[in-house]
Design goal:
This protein is α+β, with helices and mostly antiparallel strands and 748 residues long. 51% of the residues lie in helices and 18% in strands.
Length: 748
């Protein structure tokens, strides 16, 4: 019998969790957002699937399913049945993509060759038409030329245009209208109407159909090349982690085993040969080498690695074997975090992009309705032109340009920034950075290096226990000030044991508080100490203009620490560049006024505020936003968490506290402020290109739709206009790569 108060374990829930399997898939064959929506819709309908999400930039999917209900083989088959390629993440889709690329080239060649041939047969009809319309072309020759054009068009329709038809049929079967539906409809209507006209009289447009197919295939081939380039950084990043690793059976014995990277555990000892990728985050135990960490940190030069050096998963061991101990494995590595952030950014869309996507999805149905209505109206006016005008409307207004207006630019921007050490966690930051009016900086660890050093320590008495207590408290925090004090006191090599602490708490913007041997101690700012003992504090002689930290108890101050920090070498230039872009710069700090004014003067910042608590910084940014400012907040450390969450764009330094990074939209992995300036330049250019593309797509359709409805466009005009409009949008996105590289990057 079970007692009513007894907690009964959820056996069914545990069993369900044990049956759940997660996997990453490599997908291929996707061309647009409609493809993504279709695959996600169908796979989520499979019994047992609990989660499925596709990343459009990397063409990878995350899926979780119940292993007792569904198998991976069935999932892959379901994707294949839709007409797309699917492989587990550890298998590269390169072979499939290469075959598909060759087929695409053959389709383009057949369409191009046929286009040249069919124009020779169509040209006489344009120059010397049949006698019925005051021409010299005899009916027999006219019919012969039409038959020749039809024969040439058959392989183009059956082979070159097959991807459009299969995609459209797939969409219709799934009750989904994608972009290939109007494309296929336009091609088929043009072809069969021309076949009918060949035997019953009238104008034919085999040349228009073939030209349409050729131009569309060419545009899509260019689009795929551009997409591979714009997503190169993310695709390379996702392939950095090796599949296998060399693990010691019992270090330091030389017996090794080859294991899957997914099987690694924290604490494993690994051998990394020269030229191999580091399989996990860890610590070098033996060996000397250099590692290429460019894609993780933005540092273009190799980083020397010796005993006790940290190594990052995904970096390349350039020369010399390294023995390392794994500290973070699998999804806990920094590489996995970077991939997750980039994938998340590529999945998110700025509000302008969402608006465009929303209208693009509805645009297809509206165009089909317009074509149908126009055909009926023209049937009453001129029945011979009704079908061709309807076809022209369908073809000329295919919304490829509208749908392609933003993805290429966004992918290119994310890739360029990642390559230069600026990681976008949320792509909405692109739009916000482009429209930013104010940039707010923290001081310690942001404008300054954050590697503080204790210049001098002053003791109120000679009790050695105070230094031991201060070091014990300092070890409880990752803040740069605490680290500096801990390192300084550790060099004193006190023989006293570190006391036990109770009720330890870290106060953002204040310091560390703990109970030790019945007394409350605080290590932190002067104001934080004053709150504990409520005594007036006079700054010791010689400590003015320095960052001060105090160890205090309820009876008064026990130790004074004067710390020095170094201004980042690129801070002055970065601030000057940001000012030249019209941005207003502010400095908000919790440090004393004299210290803050010193840094502000060096950087030529005219608005600097000192002694601010996290709540004070929060209120300052809130006031700026209330007055219409778009605020970019650049911070480092735990006390910047609240204000980073509030800002329109939050930027965290790569070496900052995890809490500040987790709340940030942008992460400066390189820790260079000049990279922030470069990021602002890329954001401005990207947002400008998005608006240009959207404006062009809207302008083109506003001109093309009325022209087609009025009968001013022939089908071949429509084919040419649609293909060129899409091509213009795609090529315009490539202008982002024309941005000049900063001098310091070229020097690296």
């Amino acid at each position: 019998m079970i007692n009513a108060n007894e907690v009964v374990p959820d056996v069914n829930g545990i069993a369900q969790q044990q049956r759940l399997v997660s996997e990453k898939l490599n997908l291929s064959g996707m061309r647009c957002a409609a493809c993504v929506q279709l695959i996600e819709f169908r796979i989520r309908q499979l019994p047992g699937v609990t989660a499925f999400k596709i990343n459009t930039a990397s063409h990878r999917a995350d899926i979780s399913w119940d292993a007792e209900v569904l198998t991976l083989k069935r999932i892959l088959a379901a994707v294949t049945d839709l007409g797309y390629g699917a492989l587990p993440a550890n298998q590269s889709p390169d072979e499939f993509e290469q075959k598909e690329s060759k087929r695409a080239l053959w389709r383009l060649f057949v369409a191009g060759f046929a286009m040249m041939q069919v124009m020779m047969y169509a040209f006489p009809a344009y120059l010397v038409p049949v006698p019925q319309i005051d021409g010299d072309l005899t009916p027999d020759v006219d019919k012969l030329l039409k038959l020749a054009s039809m024969i040439i068009a058959v392989p183009v329709i059956g082979f070159s245009a097959s991807p459009f038809f299969s995609s459209a049929w797939r969409d219709l079967k799934n009750r989904h209208i994608g972009m290939d539906v109007p494309v296929s409809l336009g091609i088929l209507l043009t072809f069969f109407a021309s076949v009918w006209a060949t035997f019953h009289g009238g104008a034919v447009y085999f040349d228009s159909a073939i030209m349409f197919i050729f131009l569309l295939l060419g545009a899509r081939l260019i689009e795929s090349k551009v997409q591979k380039r714009t997503t190169a950084a993310l695709r390379i990043l996702t392939q950095l982690s090796p599949a296998k690793a060399q693990r010691y059976l019992a270090y330091p014995q030389q017996a090794l085993e080859t294991v899957d990277v997914a099987a690694l555990q924290t604490g494993d000892y690994l051998l990394v040969a020269a030229g191999e990728h580091i399989p996990a985050d860890g610590l070098v135990i033996a060996g000397d080498s250099s590692c290429d960490e460019a894609l993780m940190t933005g540092e273009s030069l190799p980083v020397c690695k010796t005993t006790d050096s940290n190594v990052l998963a995904g970096s390349v061991n350039i020369y010399g074997a390294l023995v390392m101990q794994a500290k973070q494995v699998g999804g806990a590595t920094q590489l996995s975090a970077l991939i997750g952030m980039m994938e998340s950014a590529s999945l998110e869309k700025p509000s302008l992009v969402l608006l465009a996507d929303k209208h693009a999805s509805r645009f297809l149905i509206i165009i089909l309705l317009l074509a149908f209505v126009s055909g009926i109206v023209w049937w009453q006016i001129d029945p011979g032109r009704a079908l061709w005008i309807a076809i022209s409307i369908i073809v000329v207004t295919c919304p490829c340009a509208l749908s392609l207006a933003t993805p290429g630019v966004m992918s290119a921007a994310i890739g360029i920034l990642a390559k230069n050490g600026v990681l976008l966690a949320k792509s909405k930051a692109i739009q916000a950075m482009a429209s930013a009016t104010h940039i707010v900086f923290d001081k310690t660890g942001t404008l300054t290096v954050g590697k503080l050093q204790v210049r001098e320590m002053l003791s109120a008495d000679d009790a050695p226990a105070n230094a031991v207590i201060a070091m014990t408290l300092a070890c409880q925090s990752t803040h740069p000030v605490s680290k500096a004090i801990g390192d300084y006191l550790a060099q004193k090599k006190s023989n006293q044991d570190m006391p036990g602490l109770n009720k330890v708490r870290e106060v953002p913007g204040g310091g560390i508080e703990a109970e030790c041997e019945g007394q409350i101690y605080r290590l932190g700012s002067v104001e934080f100490a004053r709150e504990l003992h409520a005594q007036e504090i006079s700054i010791p002689v010689g400590f003015a203009g320095q960052t001060l930290t105090v160890l205090a108890n309820e009876y008064g101050n026990l130790l004074w620490f004067a710390l020095d920090d170094i201004l980042r070498e690129d801070a002055i230039e970065a601030i000057r560049n940001l000012k030249s872009k019209g941005k207003k710069i502010l400095l908000l700090s919790g440090d004393r006024l004299d210290v803050v004014n010193k840094i502000a003067a060096q950087c030529d910042i005219h608005e600097a505020y000192a002694g601010l608590s996290p709540a004070g910084k929060y209120e300052m940014v809130q006031k700026l936003q209330a007055n219409g400012a778009v605020v970019v907040m650049v911070g480092d450390g735990m006390n910047d968490g609240p204000v980073l969450a509030l800002a329109d764009v939050s930027v965290a330094m790569g070496q900052g506290a995890p809490i500040s990074q987790s709340r940030s939209d942008v992460l400066l992995m390189s820790n260079r402020l000049l990279d922030l300036d470069f990021g602002m330049t890329v954001a401005n250019k990207a947002y400008k290109l998005i608006r240009e593309n959207l404006a062009w797509a809207v302008f083109y359709n506003l001109l093309a739709i009325p022209a087609a409805m009025c009968g001013w466009l022939e089908p071949w005009h429509a084919a040419l206009g649609m293909s060129l409009s899409s091509l213009i949008v795609v090529l315009n996105a490539l202008r982002l790569y024309l941005l000049p590289q900063p001098v310091y990057l070229m020097q690296d």
